Amino acid sequence: MYDYHVHSLYSDGGRFGAMLEAAADAGVSALGFADHCNLSPDPDRRRERARYARTFDLTHERRREALAAVREETELTVFDAVEVDYEPGAEEAIADFLADAGFDYTLGSVHYVGDRYVFPWGSFADASEAERRAFVDDYYETVVSLIDSELFDIAAHVDIVESHPHLSGFTTCEHAEMVADAFERSRTVPELNAGRFEDDDKPASFHPEGRVFEMLLDRGVEFTLGSDAHRPEDFAERIPALRERAERYGLDPVCPL
């Protein structure tokens, strides 16, 4: 059981020792720490980086030194990875950083579109249905741009709008086809992400789910697995859930290395 999407105290996650111990207890044999990083050229977004713990470009070398010590103290295989916020227009900055940093593998995520966040949950309570549908359209177009950029090995939680209480239900068959087409022509693979598994108040438990997941299955697109764990206690439920879902659908997870 390899978990390629875990966070540490170098962004918004837990301490290495506690995360590794909890992962091992849950049956994980390899763990990839993929801390958050934002490289947006937008001045307003740059000012928000610290607020959302997206400053890993400043600390990745320090974490790499810490991981070297951690590897000597655990039987788990430990990977050095990163999760980068993707936005159109930031491709050059992202490519330069990734080429220089030399991670074991990379994840790309769409957490916001324009000036509105999908996660952390932006408010769409006062938005009209037309505005919500338009935002979901923009979200999936951005996901396709992420995949087409070929910047990342893994595309994380590619239908995260389905977890949002005000955006869930607006994913269409056309959106699912767009995403599946993009993965079919790209080296980037989606992850099966359990980051919302315990959130009973959220409409979706896994990503992808529903139409997007079904379309990717129909196309034979392969997946990696990621718990998206931020706390040691996340592993106990998410790892068995990922394993069960992979077995139920006959998935043979791939390695991004």
Written overview of the protein:
- The protein is 37% helix and 16% strand.
- It has 257 residues and is of the alpha/beta class.
- The protein has one domain (2-248): Alpha-Beta Barrel (TIM Barrel), CATH 3.20.20.
- A 7-stranded parallel beta sheet has the order 1-2-3-4-7-8-9.
- Strand 8, helix 7 and strand 9 (224-226) form a beta-alpha-beta unit.
- The protein is globular, with a radius of gyration of 17 Å.
- It starts with a strand and ends in a 9-residue tail after the last helix.
- 44% of the residues are buried.
- The mean pLDDT is 95.
Give a brief rundown of this model:
By secondary structure, this protein is an alpha/beta fold. 37% of the residues lie in helices and 16% in strands. The protein has a single domain, classed as Alpha-Beta Barrel (TIM Barrel).
Q: What brief labels describe this structure?
A:
8 helices, TIM Barrel, alpha/beta, 9 strands, about 35% helix, seven-stranded parallel beta sheet, about 260 residues, two-stranded antiparallel sheet
Which helices and strands appear, and what pairs or packs with what?
Layout: E1 2-6, H1 16-25, E2 30-37, H2 43-48, H3 60-71, E3 77-85, H4 91-101, E4 105-109, E5 112-113, E6 116-117, H5 129-149, E7 154-155, H6 173-184, E8 189-193, H7 210-219, E9 224-226, H8 235-248
Parallel strand pairs: 1-2, 2-3, 3-4, 4-7, 7-8, 8-9
Antiparallel strand pairs: 5-6
Helix pairs in contact: 5-6, 6-7
